[in-house]
Amino acid sequence: MSPLFRPLALGIYTLFLLAGVVCALVLPTLSLFLAKEIGVRPFLVGVPFAGIALTSMLYNQVIGGWSDKLSDRRPLIAGFCLVGAVVCALLAYSRNYWIVASVVILLLSLALVSFSQMLAYSLDYAERNVPAERVPLFNAIVRAQIAIAWVAGPPAGFLLASYFGFTTMYLIAAGMFVFIGVMTLRLLPHLDSHPHHLDHIEKADVLPLTTGQKRALLLSVIGFSLMWGANNAYLISLPLHLKDGLGIGTEYVGWIMGTCAGLEIPFMLLAGHYAARVNIMNLVKLAGLAALVLYMGVYFASALWQFFALQIFNAMFIGILAGLGVSVIQDLMPGRSGAASALYTNTSHMGNLISSLLVAVVADVYGYHQVFVVNLLIIALAILAFGRVRVKNEGKL
Questions:
Q1: C-alpha–C-alpha distance, residues 395 and 118, integer Å
Q2: Which intervals hold domain Major facilitator superfamily (MFS) profile (predicted)?
Q3: I need a surface site. Which of 142, 289, 374, 375 has the fewest CB within 10 A?
């Protein structure tokens, strides 16, 4: 049986699907919760997102490297999921901004480490069972589960928040966190996470990085951070721009995001398939070009159908970025699955910090509409960074 479809691989896909659903319930609606349910100004909406970014980077960097020395990641994943359940239960009943902000910054960011550890587990599996040329496709399939979850997750989150309230939505999310933690221990077998214990992982794989690898890694981290920053600024600003600027109901935001998630899946799988044949940096830069079209279109769009139509470019952007990003970092850090997954996850957190500061400053002074103009500059800088990354041959760093 292909290692892409063995029972263990199917268990990994299932858990990523469930993780994607709970993230899609909680994260896209958080800005709306802060702005409308609690009633704070744009600057205070951005503060918790910036705090999540900073604490998540700290947690991931410390826990990611340390976790490579452990023999079993599963208790970590389950424990962090339990933290997520506690966070959602607190958000369900608190409407004090400073309590909510503190819980989100200190504890939600810790709960999100569960997803980077799930990613590390999947990289451990890939290193041991998947042929090297098929690893990008495996990673793309893993990420596609999150995209599938986001087809239904944001619409469900905004509908629950709109018609049943945030209390109900957060209690459902808390239950899902508990379920994911339990299923992690039941679905996934013990898998030695330390590459030194495996005969087919060569000793050279864990030698210090070369100067070229370090330079390519730095440029890639900068590029991915900028791209995720633009994406997160879009996610924060779009619901409020549509509601306040165009008078479009927030329930449609979920359907817009769900449409993008559905369209992302084929782009993720195609990116994974062609990564072994095509210069991988060209694919990443193609994602950047799609983002430029997206944000230009969103800035000038005024009708609901136009936002739906633009999701084809959003899907190309996120599909390639999410499908190939971890493969790029993994190629540059062989034999270090925990550290590689933590660093890749941290690019999204660094992006969150960029976007939080962007939204806090730009939206507070000029409004949410102008955020999309700044996104264009951010994506242009990301394309320049990736343009300076050199690859050895087709599809490989």
A1: 25
A2: 4-394
A3: 289
Q: Is residue 275 a part of any domain in this protein?
A: yes
Is residue 244 situated within a structural domain? yes
For residue 215, tell me if it sits in a domain.
yes
CA distances to 80, 150, 187, 202, 382 from 357, rounded to whole Å, are 27, 25, 39, 43, 17
- DSSP states along 84-148: HHHHHHHHHH---HHHHHHHIIIIIHHHTHHHHHHHHHHHHHHHHHS-GGGHHHHHHHHHHHHHH
Look at the chain and report how many structural domains it folds into.
1
Per the structure block, which two tokens stand in for 307?
């936002």
**Cβ(160)–Cβ(172) below 8 Å:** yes
DSSP class per residue in 202-259: -GGGGSPPPHHHHHHHHHHHHHHHHHHHHHHHHHHHHHHIIIIIS---THHHHHHHHH
Nearest to 143 by CA among 371, 331, 319, 334: 319
**Residues 278, 284, 289, 293: what is their CA dihedral angle, to the nearest 10 degrees?**
120
Residue 223 sits in which domain range? 7-387
Per-residue model confidence (pLDDT) at position 397: 54
Q: What are phi and psi of 372, to 5 degrees?
A: -70, -25
Q: Helices 337-358 and 42-67: crossing angle, nearest 10°? A: 170
39: number of Cβ within 10 Å = 10
β-strand partners of 396:
393
pTM, rounded to two decimals = 0.71
Task: Assign residue 248 the CATH number of its domain.
Answer: 1.20.1250.20
Distance CA 168, CA 164 (A): 6
345 in a domain, yes or no?
yes
Residue 89 to residue 70: CA distance in whole angstroms:
30
pLDDT, residue 197, reads 38
